[in-house]
Specification:
Blueprint (H helix, E strand, L loop, with lengths): L2 H5 L7 H14 L10 H10 L12 E7 L5 E8 L2 E7 L16 H12 L4 E8 L5 H11 L7 E5 L22 H11 L7 H13 L16 H5 L4 H11 L9 E5 L13 E6 L19 E6 L1 H6 L1 H10 L7 E5 L8 E8 L6 H25 L1
Parallel strand pairs: 3-4, 4-5
Antiparallel strand pairs: 1-2, 2-3, 6-7, 7-8, 8-10, 9-10
């Protein structure tokens, strides 16, 4: 049972956004009965403030819907020691464009007020958005991070995503690479379930399962398949197993879904944060009207990194046999984009093959070990 799904069945106004920001308020509060203490707050604060007294987190105060006077109410304000952390939450891309009657954008209004009210303290502002594909949110943040508060503001996402496009002119120190979903996964891997209250397990599980869905709310003029397009296909059960384990969903801006290397923004020095990619089309195309022609209804193709494949080839071949694929289901090609410059090993999974989440977990484990072996080879040479 997912409590958040139940509470968002009857959508109305900003109710869903309030629900997500309320969940975050609860987890950030070290005095709350979730049993995590200041763990969640510490993980975010550590990405925002270069230095702070960690013991001050235990006495932190969380103020939901904190009033900034005529500027409006900021979703969250957290105080600990001499630090002030303001967080504005968005779960819909198109809700980020909010200007006052005097044409002052919401983010600038909030930062002006924070600066006026807390000028004698170390304050920071985090803009929490659905994903790095949230273009309206990125455009709004662009003005803020390149203005007078450039050293005070950070961008953060609910979901992991691809690197931010240079077109938005957001400096690397202007955003937090670790997403909320990454942090939840990190906590779930660090703290045993038996050491967490049942309700905390329930909330974290619910957030992990529902957060990837908010990517679907991003309006896209892209031409490639989204989840609804793929759901119509006989191959959908295969896609679903990979997406559920990877906690990533297709968006129509990309030809493939990159599965992250690991929890908590863990990155490989070889290939960034992408463990492998799942193609959502059978070939690259330029016209959106061609979508139906290139939907992968017969097979699902997985793009592996060739150098990583070489060091775990035997394990991959064993996995192929175990899930019932033919020996010739693996071959070579290029990543599906307009350039076809990046070589890839392609694993083709026929629509009639049943792939369980356990099968996906096993493949992910093999590839992560392959990354580590490759990295060790590189280190030993140096």
């Amino acid at each position: 049972m997912n409590i958040l799904r139940i509470l968002t069945l009857n959508r109305h106004g900003d109710f869903e956004e309030v629900l997500f920001s309320s969940s975050l308020s609860y987890l950030l509060n070290p005095q709350a009965d979730h049993g995590l203490g200041p763990v969640v707050l510490g993980k975010i604060a550590g990405k925002v403030f270069p230095d702070f007294d960690k013991t001050s987190l235990y006495k932190a105060q969380v103020f939901p819907e904190y009033s900034l006077g005529n500027a409006g109410n900021i979703d969250l304000l957290v105080t600990f020691g001499d630090k002030i952390l303001g967080i504005e939450v968005k779960i819909w891309d198109n809700s980020s464009r909010n200007v006052s009657k005097s044409n002052e954008p919401q983010l600038e209004r909030y930062c002006n007020k924070l600066d006026a009210e807390f000028h004698d303290k170390d304050w920071k502002f985090v803009f929490l958005i659905p994903t790095t594909a949230s273009r309206t949110c990125l455009s709004e943040f662009n003005r803020l991070v390149n203005g007078k508060f450039s050293n005070k503001v950070k961008l953060m996402t609910w979901n992991p995503g691809d690197p931010i496009d240079n077109v938005y002119n957001i400096p690397k120190n202007g955003y937090i690479e670790k997403s909320v979903l990454d942090i939840i996964g990190e906590i779930q891997s660090e703290i045993k379930r038996v050491d967490m209250p049942l309700n905390t397990q329930w909330l974290l599980d619910s957030l992990s399962e529902i957060l990837p869905d908010i990517v679907e709310e991003i309006p896209e003029p892209g031409r490639f398949p989204n989840r609804d397009d793929l759901k119509k296909l006989a191959t959908w059960p295969i896609f679903e197993s990979f997406f559920l384990v990877g906690k990533r969903w297709p968006i129509s801006l990309h030809t493939a879904v990159g599965i992250p290397f690991g929890w908590a923004g863990e990155r490989s020095t070889l290939h960034g944060n992408s463990l492998y990619r799942i193609r959502t089309v059978t070939n690259y195309y330029t016209e959106g009207s061609d979508l139906n022609k290139y939907l992968p209804g017969e097979k699902v193709e997985i793009e592996l990194w060739p150098d990583v494949y070489e060091v775990c080839k035997d394990e991959i071949q064993d996995w192929i046999k175990q899930v019932g694929l033919a020996a010739d289901s693996i071959g070579t090609d290029y990543h599906l984009d307009g350039t076809k410059k990046i070589s890839a090993i392609i694993v083709s999974i026929d629509k009639n093959v049943k792939i369980s989440e356990e099968d996906v977990d096993r493949l992910n484990y093999i590839l992560r070990e392959g990354f580590r072996k490759k990295q060790n080879e590189k280190t030993s040479v140096i």
